[in-house]
Amino acid sequence: MQPVLPKNTEVVLAVADSLASKTSKIGDRFRISLASPVTDASGKILLRVGIVGEGEVIHAAKPGFGGKGGELILAARFLQCGDERVPLGRFHLGGSGNDTSKTTITTSAVVGAVSPIAAVPLMFVTGGDYRVPAGTLAQARINADTTLTEADATACGEVQIKGESK
Q1: Where do the structural domains in the chain lie, given as residue ranges?
Q2: Cα(88)–Cα(55) distance, rounded to whole angstroms?
Q3: Residue 166 above 60 pLDDT?
């Protein structure tokens, strides 16, 4: 019987590439890898640690003027298991850099009361860059029931050595 990876099975992933809101663009692809094994009900490993796949940048915004922080939203797309792509979903690693816009506006108002000319440069303060370092862990779910062929199961599951599973 061929193993099936059920829809909605949770997986733990590691982002393999460093990403930043300052340099990432919508549509950029990045590498991911499986950080924790996926097992069946009997405990047999169906997907072992290290299986690689791909994610995509869904949204990226550079830090902005006035202290607006950078933004980055990522999605996991698939894990590659032999010839089979295991589709992933429900993974959105998003966030934003430090938003200093309130500080900038407050400082501008205070300095502006003292000297209107001194307030102008503060409006050009930018917020923080949002970064995702390589190795960052995240969770996702398998997006559809995926049946593995024998070859795919051998490529991605438990390693068989002399008739024993390891």
Answers
A1: 4-156
A2: 9
A3: no
In terms of CATH architecture, what is 4-156? Answer: Beta Barrel (2.40)
Structural contact between residues 110 and 137, judged by C-beta atoms closer than 8 angstroms: no
CA gap 74, 86 in Å, rounded: 18
Place of tokens 């791909």: 54
* Cβ density class 23-36: b for 16+ within 10 Å, e for less: ebeeeeebebebbe
> What's the pTM value of the predicted model, to 2 decimals?
0.73
Q: For 31-43, what is each residue's pLDDT tens digit? A: 999 999 999 888 8
Question: Which of 9, 97, 89, 101 minimizes the C-alpha distance to 47?
Answer: 9
Rounded Cα–Cα distance for residues 1 and 9 (Å): 19
d(C-alpha 80, C-alpha 155), whole Å: 10
End-to-end CA distance of the chain: 20
